[in-house]
Amino acid sequence: MASRQERCIHCGVLLVVPPEVNVFQCGVCHGITHLRPSTPPWTQAYNSFHSFTGRFRGFLNTIRSTAPVNTNSGGYYGANSFGLYPHPQSLRPSFHAYGSKRAVVCGIRYHGKSYKLKGSINDAKCMKYFLIKHYGFPSDSILMLTDDKEERNQLRIPTRYNILMAMRWLLENTKSGDSLVFHFSGHGTQEISMDGNEIDGLDEAICPVDYEEQGKILDDEINTAIVRPLPRGAKLHAIVDACHSGTVLDLSFVCKMNREGYYSWEDQRFPRANKGTSGGVAVSISACEDSQTSIDTSALSGTEATGVLTYSFIQTVQNEPGLSYGRLLSAMRSSIRGTKTGIVPLNGPIASLFNRLLGMELRQEPQLSSSEVFDVYTSRFVL
Predict the structure, then answer these.
(1) CA pair distance 137, 35, nearest whole angstrom
(2) Measured between alpha carbons, how far is 6 from 21 in angstroms, rounded to an integer?
(3) Which one of 8, 106, 183, 187 is the catalytic residue?
(4) Which of 11, 106, 243, 255 is catalytic?
(5) pLDDT in tens, 270-294
(6) Residue 292: exposure state from Cβ atoms within 10 A (0-12, 13-18, ≥19)
(7) How many CB atoms are closer than 10 A to CB 166?
(8) What distance in Å separates the CA atoms of residue 356 and residue 216, rounded to the nearest whole number?
(9) 207 catalytically annotated
(10) Domains in the chain, ordered, with CATH?
(11) What does pTM read for this prediction?
């Protein structure tokens, strides 16, 4: 018997139903969907709206699943022999059930490209392990997106669309007391700001795996997705291991610290742009200044390639429990400055000159920015 596909207007799951059916009950959320051959315009609009929100909820529920996506029906769930049910899948709890700690972790290698990276997937795996073991994040509250060749769930590939949807998931139903983390290891870049809301005239951006086709994610978009909605009492930490990432969250204040540890906050607020939070605190720890580049290397770990920021961040926090933001920043910078990627292991002015001329010394400085000013030496770093 012929059949047709209809979408549940409540959860967004695509189901196969007999052609003569006008009403069906979803096997996942048990919601009732009415199908009428002649639907008034206002009802069409109502169903259209609920279909859209259903798809969004369906995406967020699906992305938490460990089961691979069924590709036999264009990426949607298929039907089993009963016709009205998708393939077996547990009904996941609502967002707040993940608790007060949630994280999105992205690592992109850009396989097959001339600009492919070596350490970004290692960074993502290490960051997830670190959050679980060191700060007690529940494993199922960490959404990891990588272009690992073994990844089969298409919703966990770090495309532009998936990263933006993951950011929305991270902030969904956030409340006072929540601790959120966004980690990105991949390429970053700059381009001319078209809306004129940047002091230096440039937008910073991260590069999804499909950025050549779908575009980059600009700092304005990141700010809108995970900074602006942050409610009072909630805190977000972004760790961005990418080139040109100093102000990639477009936060209001940048910590300018010299090698002696003296610092001041530089006001980055732009008169025509409101890029603050909704009362919460957002902090960004990024790989380098907006004008600098960042690398991945095995020089730090001695074996596996990693991003310089991710490795130095994890090592510093593990080695110095209870450290302050100021100590974290200065220790990471010292660690990176002391790392050589070449073959001149000597100290002194001659070796230093060779390192600079041959590009062997790591010359990137991690940056700290925040939505509000605070004392970096009395404020303890905690996630």
Answers:
(1) 43
(2) 10
(3) 187
(4) 243
(5) 777 778 999 999 999 999 988 888 7
(6) middle
(7) 24
(8) 32
(9) no
(10) 1-90 (no CATH), 95-370 (3.40.50.12660)
(11) 0.72
